[in-house]
Amino acid sequence: MKNLRLIRIGLMIDKLEELYVKIDKDEFFGKYSGTNSIGRPHLAQELVAHGFADDFKTAFMKYLGDYKPAYVKKDNPDFKLVLNLIKSAGGVAIIAHPGKYIKHSVLQDFIGSGIDGLEVVHPSHKLNDSKYFSGVCQSHNLLTSGGSDFHGYLDADYTNMGNYFVSESCVKAIENLHSTNIKNQDK
User: What is the pLDDT of residues 13-66, one digit of tens each?
Assistant: First the structure.
């Protein structure tokens, strides 16, 4: 995943250069080499630092946001590979905001593959979506998660914060499964 992210950011820097927005790749990758996961937020910081955008939000709205001029679609690895990696590391596999990206037939494939839960509460979910995914979780004995999806560059991030959440029992259930997975991994 880290390598895919590096390739993607390199391609985005190339696209920026085509737009006469010069970010030196060597400097950029040197500056963020200690970062675990280089991504668009780092590139947005550089656009601001070099005067190509007034602020983080503008960098995304003008250049880096989905389908903007320097956007490069994320190349995602095979789902089953990712699921196996999560499980082998003792992690908990929860599908993020399924109402936004996941078709019903694909969701059934994910459930059959052994996911642990679904993000039920999300700003992009309507009340009916949350009810539907909650029912799916109950009927398949899956964990529920949720939150505001705060990233820090959209105005809605700040108004959503604190307004989207799940109960403490949902969080405890995730923590308990994680603890169990880690203990089983040690055996």
Answer: 999 999 999 999 999 999 988 877 899 999 999 999 999 999 999 999 999 999
- The rounded distance, in Å, linking the Cα atoms of 116 and 143 is 6
In terms of Cα–Cα distance, which of 163, 144, 39 is closest to 98? 144
Do the beta carbons of residue 157 and residue 148 sit within 8 Å? yes
Cβ atoms 178, 91 nearer than 8 A: yes
What are the chain's domains? 2-64 (no CATH), 79-186 (3.20.20.140)
Instruction: Kindly list the distances between the CA atom of residue 111 and the CA atoms of 24, 30, 61, 81, 107, in Å, as whole numbers in the listed order.
Output: 44, 41, 35, 15, 6
CB 10 within 8 A of CB 70: no
Length of the chain: 187
**Collapsed DSSP state (helix, strand, coil) of residue 84:** helix
Token pair in block for residue 172: 């405890």
150, 35, 50, 157: which is closest to 9 by C-alpha? 35
Mean pLDDT (the chain) is 91
Cα–Cα distance, 94 to 111 (Å, whole number): 10
H-run or E-run covering 76? none
State the pLDDT at residue 187.
65
What residues form DSSP beta bridges with 145? 119
**pTM higher than 0.90, yes or no?**
no
